[in-house]
Amino acid sequence: MKTEKKRKQTFLVLVPHRDIRGELRKYSDLLIKTGLTDVYSFPYIAPLASLSRALNAEELKQIAHSLRKNIGSDKILVEGDDVTAFPCRENSLFLFGPRLNIVIPRNLLESGIKKVNTIFSPLVIGCFLTKDNKKPASLSEIPHKKSVFRAAAVANMYWLPLQVDGEICYKWKIGKLCWLPRPQKGLQKTEMCHNKIYEGQKTP
Q1: Which of 38, 107, 157, 184 has the most crowded Cβ, counting Cβ within 10 A?
Q2: Which residues contact 200 (CB under 8 A, 6 or more apart)?
């Protein structure tokens, strides 16, 4: 088997609580069962920005604080579905998934602003990547149900396109998670961080 690695890319991502990720996994599985084809899997997280290089632990903590301050005590609402361009150098791809009801102003990422290339809009929790910027027709059969969550973390995601025996696939790794502070505890509480790594690879 011949494998050719492409240039690695780095993103700032929002990682929802695992309960939400479990719901989305079931939702995307149902879409696949309707006959959806020509898609790549994605790790059920929301890309916030593309980066020139990874953010360090202090920058992630500051961004976690800023996000919580921007969101306030409100829960993050996940409602409806949307498509956003996913900036990969090799192909023009689109990320499909449930839309988040938050907006990321550029000054919110001030602590790592020198490393930010672009900010994603709209923000979606990725269920899969597709080359088509249109919503799947099967959505009319399985609409996404509204859900909410408060617990979420920010992290660097490392994205590596691969070519395996002539076929394009993607490998990803999500680094250290820095959790947004709990609203009721105020913004002075230090975020919990841990070293759990999520990895995945999917070929078409």
Answers
A1: 157
A2: 41, 43, 171, 172
Judging by beta carbons within 10 Å of its beta carbon (0-12, 13-18, 19+), is residue 152 exposed, middle or buried? buried
Structural domain containing residue 152? 3-202
pTM: 0.80
Q: Where are the beta strands (DSSP E) in 59-125?
A: 76-87, 92-100, 116-119
Average pLDDT, consecutive stretches of 10 residues, N- to C-terminus, the chain (204 residues): 70 90 81 76 91 94 90 80 77 83 79 84 88 66 70 94 72 94 55 44 40
Beta bridge pairs of residue 95: 84, 129
Q: Is 154 exposed, middle or buried (0-12, 13-18, 19+ CB in 10 A)?
A: buried
SS3 content of the chain, % helix, strand, coil (to 5): 25, 40, 35
Looking at residue 53, which CATH number applies to its domain?
A: 3.90.1140
Quote the number of domains for the chain: 1
Four-CA torsion 113, 114, 120, 123, nearest 10 degrees: -30
β-bridge mates for residue 156, sequence order: 12
As a whole number of angstroms, the distance between CA 98 and CA 146 comes to 9
The answer to whether the beta carbons of residues 13 and 120 sit under 8 Å apart is no
